[in-house]
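Go through the following before class.
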Amino acid sequence: MANTYPRLFVTVPGKRRYRPRPSSGLGTKLVGFIVLTMLVGSAIGKIYLDRQSIKMGTTWQELHDKLTALEKEAENLRIDQERLMSGDHILGEARKFDLRPSEPGQVRIINAGVASQDSAIVALRSQ
């Protein structure tokens, strides 16, 4: 049976030698360049992502601090509004200006449209 595989060894009487294949240095250099490029690219990518992560963390912290301050301010404003709308505060302010509750007949209710309301307001101011 004949051997159809290529021969890697050359038989010399008494010695077996490896038959060197023709190699080009270009393939080895190309593989080295690709590996080097991948290493440098991944290093640059890691540095970029680390910086972006730090920047995003700083931005998030600033926005969180602003949100906390705004929530605190809104709570303080709600407390002030409740205090100012309480009856005790309104009566105290009315006493400062010597205001009293209205007497019967002192307030007139006018049922009119928008156009006649303006004329009614002018008529009341002229009295």
Q: What stands out?
A: Strands lie at 9-12, 15-18. The mean pLDDT is 80. The two ends are 133 Å apart (CA to CA). The CA atoms of residues 23 and 29 lie 12 Å apart.
